[in-house]
Amino acid sequence: MSDIDETDRAILRALGEDATLSSARLGARLGLSQPVTWRRMRRLEEAGIIAGRRLDLDLAALGFGVTVFLGVKLATRGRVALPDFERALSAIPEIQTVEHVLGLYDYRLRVVARDLSDFERVLRRRIMTLPGVGEVEANVLLSEERRPGPL
């Protein structure tokens, strides 16, 4: 969809800040009527630009005080099928995201844990025991800042 105008961009920026905004509240904020706002939002959804809305949980409030990014390099011996490896990763609830990347590592994982000893348990008993895992590098998240994006 190449005909995105400044109003569409304003809608996307506002939803990026608060995805729970109704079309009425969003329209009032942008000086548009509710029906016009709703039609524009619907058009952006149908074009696949708005792919969904997400719930952003406070992991620390839920007891997950540690976030670790893992770089995982698969072993060259005993090649494992990538879909099988990804399926095995998805069975580990502490893994929040799985990204297949190009570079030093084959995968980048975002792992949450209650504390460092809990992370060590997940790493040793769940992740390192998966077939095909070779090198692993861990980076503990100290702080995170959300950026609004290119709009």
What does this structure look like?
By secondary structure, the chain is an alpha+beta fold. It has 2 domains: 6-46, Winged helix-like DNA-binding domain superfamily/Winged helix DNA-binding domain (Arc Repressor Mutant, subunit A, Orthogonal Bundle); 66-140, Alpha-Beta Plaits (2-Layer Sandwich), CATH 3.30.70. Helices cover 36% and strands 20% of the residues. It is built from 5 helices and 4 strands; from the N terminus they run H-H-H-E-H-E-E-H-E. It has a 4-stranded antiparallel beta sheet. A hairpin with a 6-residue loop joins strand 2 and strand 3. Helix 2 (23-30) packs across helix 3. It starts with 5 loop residues before the first helix and ends in an 11-residue tail after the last strand. 12% of the residues are buried.
